[in-house]
Amino acid sequence: MKLKPCPFCGGTNLRETDKSLYIGIQRDGARSKYGHGVAYHVECLDCDASVSAFCCGRWRWYRDIRKEAYDKWNCRAPNKLEAMLQEISGELEKLSDDVDICAEWVSKV
Fold it and tell me: How does pLDDT run across 27-36, given as a tens digit for each residue?
């Protein structure tokens, strides 16, 4: 897995942190014993943007929190400009094919 540059500033100066935590667990609205949790944190050191993935209790072993943090960091909104450029490129390829067919036809006439 590879991290993309920062989605806000484009920076590549990133820090990853993997921590075991002890947290207070709420049960029925009352504070009870402390529980164990695991967190994975990705942050841009240039603009302080960050994401975290966290898992608490016995379920932490069933989740890959590093992958969750990477997926959150690498998630991007669809780029409308890129989609438009791909559409235009496809149209230009079609036109190019039409021009080649016309040129071929003209050369036979």
Answer: 555 555 556 6
